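User: Could you walk me through two proteins back to back? I'd like the raw sequence and the structure tokens for each, with a short line separating them so I can tell where one ends and the next begins.

Assistant: Of course. Protein one, sequence then structure:
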Amino acid sequence: MSQIYVACLAAYNNGILHGEWIDATQGTDDIYEDIARVLKGSPFPDAEEFAIHDYDDFGAIELGEYESIENVHAIAAALDEWPSAVVAHYHGEGVEPEDLDDHIRDRFIGTAEEELDEVSALASFILTEEEWYWDELPDQFRTHISAIAHSEARDRLLSGSTIALYAGRGTWHFLTND
């Protein structure tokens, strides 16, 4: 669950840390209600300003102190749905936070969780994607079909039509590139 630590700036500017961790995956109205509650509980009456002083579970994405709540929520929602390496890739490519989910939905093709190089991982994914019945194939066909899958994987990666993102621990995520 992606969270932000929202701090009351009136308190902070007077040397007092007053804030709260807020679930960023909830709706924006709920986030604003939680922020209003933080400000209302401030030791300084009529506190109105807040800042994001910390965040958790946003992967490689860095949030600004004054990031819009709408952006925070859109990024958190995408991270709740998609692998963090994929969200970070498109966020880093300049996809607007409100467009992340649709953008990824149009391009994400799958994941391979094997400790292989990117070509072998994509070839393994292609075999799974094409629903080959590997265990039912005679041995003489396995080598041939595996070679075809490796050739297709190499072609996809070299042509740029597929992007492979390594997320660590042997996990690869595959995206179409347009």
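----
Protein two, same layout:
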Amino acid sequence: MIVVTGATGNVGRPLTQALVEAGEQVTAVSRHATAVDGIRHVVADLAEPASLAPVLDGAKALFLLLSGNLHAPDSRPADLVDLAVARGVRRVVLLSSQGVSTRPLGPTRVAMRALEDAVRASGLDWAVVRPGGFASNAFAWAESVRTRGMVAAPFGDVGVPVVDPADIGEVAAACLLDDRHNGGVYELTGPEVISPRRQAEAIATALGSPVRFHELTRAEAKAQMTRFVPAELADDTLDIISAPNPDELRISPDVQRVLGRAPRPFSDWVARNVAAFR
């Protein structure tokens, strides 16, 4: 049995689907009760590791995804790794961040590096996936596109190679299932550098109707982001998307290496999710 944390999210859903299609028994874990297509679902809060303990009994592998509050300075996500060891889990795949390698001194990146180190030192089989920006961050624009035909974002003409969460999920599934990926660290990007303005154009194309672009200031963007994530994580993210360095602009070959195909472009993500913007 494989335990997937964050199973109802943008990465967890395609990961769970990939594991089920591979014939695996899956336990989906999230903080809120949600139906997950007939799969066993358990409510647990990773900020309270004890709530996850019974879920891990009998599990052979764990996919570990940290929610926003587990990036806070006073959190102890390494306790989850210790719990997995104590409960007999044999493999852990960690969803980390590209910023661990490209911005190693950012406050949240230091904490994530420490968690990566805890995974490496655990004695378990392990793999780490480090995505860059998610294509699904565009869901933040859905309401404004539906009601006002507008995308509002900072740094409108600064692009990064955003990655489709379905690609992240499929890479994570391969790491959970295939021994060849033990000890692997995979940086995941999309196939092209794409700016927020061009993402708005892709949404307009998929809708068949105009979508105008409004550029936010950094302060406005941070105020929106901190409704959902700690201020340190918001600042780290804004630092990257305002002035990506050469490593953050690089198109990684790792999706191709693991899955044997090119990563999906942003337009594919929009086509699959266009109903959210109508």
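The chain has a mean pLDDT of 92.

Let me know if you want the two compared in more detail.
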